[in-house]
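REQUEST ID: PR-0412
SUBMITTED BY: lab tech R.K.
PRIORITY: routine
TASK: structure prediction, single protein chain
INPUT:
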Amino acid sequence: MRRLRRNIRLGTVTDTTDHKRERLMRMLRLALGQGKMGVRPIAGVLHLFVYIGFVVINLEMLEIVIDGIFSTHRIFSFLGAFYNILIATFEILALWVIIGVTVFYIRRNLLSISRFHKRELLGAPRRDANRILCAEMVMMLLFLGMNACDSLLQLRGITPYVKAGAFPVSQWVAMLFSSLSTPTLIVMERSAWWLHIIGVFAFLNYLYYSKHLHILLAFPYTYYAPIKPKGALDNLSTVTKEVQLMLGTIEETSQEEEATPTFGASDVFHLSRVQLLSAYACTECGRCTDECPANQTGKLLSPRKIVMDTRRRVQQVGENIETNKGTFVPDGKQLLGDYITPEELWACTTCAACVEACPMEISPLSILVDLRRYIVMEQSAAPASLNKMMTQMENTSSPWGYNPTEREKVWKE
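STATUS: complete
OUTPUT:
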């Protein structure tokens, strides 16, 4: 978490203190309420069950931890009927999680869904996604297996397996184990107990190095993301400052600061902290790429890759800082060129379909625009067609180069 915080703070500071109520409501709607997942009903409903199951079933971990520390067994069984309802709810949710992750695994690996087979998901990202799905499946199976053995031991009156809990799902699993001896059931129940709790703790450590980190960072991102229309572009603060200096509306405060202003972004240091946070909050679902008109027509651009490349670069910079004891040593690389190519950038039409499609409303568009601004204003390397358009806008106030007074004549012709 310390390294993650340091990496995000590599970005520039932006004002996120405005619209507090709107920010809070958006966080509750998108991060907690999964407000945009229902746009695709099948995946949305299954994701909702996995999400609820992941959160609610982990309440059962409280009892497991307490039992482990104090050598008790089902310490909350004194809750009586309410405890039965809790265990039954956990089991039903566990079944839904198993169904959900099975469908997700099939969709990712066996079906020809294009967004799951893009080049940016090959290799480590695919393995990461499958590892998460398999881990969730195994933990739910261990939970149900533990309860199945426990219920049989309860029926046999074995100490300390007190009669408590309702088992609407694991009772069917228990039928497979009913012929086993009591010592075997105890070994199986204890093994499932230990493997379940070890698996949960191991997964909690792995979570910070995986895409599953989005379940935590979705909350701060949806709160701190800009409150504005999805297609709105920010004014470039450095340009605004330069204009204000020329007009004399502000005074130059520091010669060192004003000596090397940066227009746009070429590396993660020039992006904002919110943009870097968005790179970590991305779940790599690919809905942005699926809706991108440039990607649909075979262009190189993939909005998901833009966000993933930003995260890879900031992680590499963080490793550089860690290796060099807190100081970044230039490595001859930057986000623009080494990770994201100009061809990808200029394929974007700035339609904001990617932002609209994202369940967390992450904006690959803002990163794209900042990189393009650097190309134009720092490198003077805009495409010839764009240079021509800007020249004609400057000379005639028209992108087509016609004098405004001749527009009606040109239109009639």
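NOTES: The chain has a mean pLDDT of 90.
REVIEWED BY: pending
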